[in-house]
Amino acid sequence: MGKFNGHLYPGLYLFSYGLYQATVLFKAMLASDSLLYASCPPRNKGRWARLWKISYGGLMKMVTGSTLTIYVVFCLDDGMVLMNKKVPPRFMYPKEWQHLTMFILLALNGCIDVMSKNLLPQRCVLLEKGTLVLILYVLLMLFISHVQGSAGIELQTHSLLILGHLMLAVS
Question: Membrane spanning segments where (predicted)?
């Protein structure tokens, strides 16, 4: 995960998800619509009517989080080992475990979105937003601890991510 490709895939996801959120915000502003309860144009009531109601943002989070979780687990040569056997025990691969935690939280956020928008009888915005705020705070703490031992462009990039997460968590 410490190589260029290991950071390219999560970066591409963050960039594409940022573009997706920007288009959702732009459409809501054009239609003078609420961001919490974004309306969608009426669709036909045919065989595929339920397909149009799927939370695509949540589905994208679930698929991407799961894919990146699998990538982190299998990118190490000797597998994901939590602690070494030496005395005193130390964490093995702490940055990879931080990446794994971030991607599991992303998949969990997607599961909550899909569950709230598609499976519950009534959408629970409080559950969605509460989960998002908790995940943002956990990610903020993970990014702050993730920066230790970084230098150069990696430090600057992670600092920008920390600033973005801090602004999201405060707003």
Answer: 12-30, 51-74, 126-145
